[in-house]
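Reviewers of the previous submission asked for a worked example of the structure-prediction workflow described in the proposal, so we include one complete record here. The input consisted solely of the amino acid sequence. No template or homolog information was supplied to the procedure at any stage.
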Amino acid sequence: MKLLLKKTYLSLIENSVGATLFKNLYAEVDGQVEDLLKGGDLSCAFFVSFILNHFRLIDSAHATVSGLVKDMEKNGWQVAHEPKAGDVLVWEEQQQKSGPHTHIGFYIGDTMAVSNNPQGGEPFKHHVTFGEKDGTPARVVRAVYTHQFLEKE
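From that input alone, the workflow returned the following structure tokens.
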């Protein structure tokens, strides 16, 4: 028997759509319990890092995109020019209800991605640019990261 880790990784990403388990990450801040992810509004880095950490592709889970990207780079993730299924996408910063935020998710192929939906607080499948507004991408991909793990199988 041979485990097919890449196939399992890609399946886990797609099967996460609609999952609510990435909505909350609690910490004690100045003596008060706080949900760092605001009920799913800020869950994109936690969602991506949870999966990457499960496959030992990074060192730990993260609540911020910047911390996650640093961990990815430390663990062999490299910038790619064209995305392929399983690569990690980083979108441009945009204003959200809690302030400006960079966004992160997974490319799954055929111009589609899976990332956390800040409106619903759970992963969802969407176009890689979140569609268009006035003929231009609604959100621009600023970086594509790939790992040698994705070259297997």
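The longest helix spans residues 5-15. We consider this example representative of the routine output the project will generate in years two and three.
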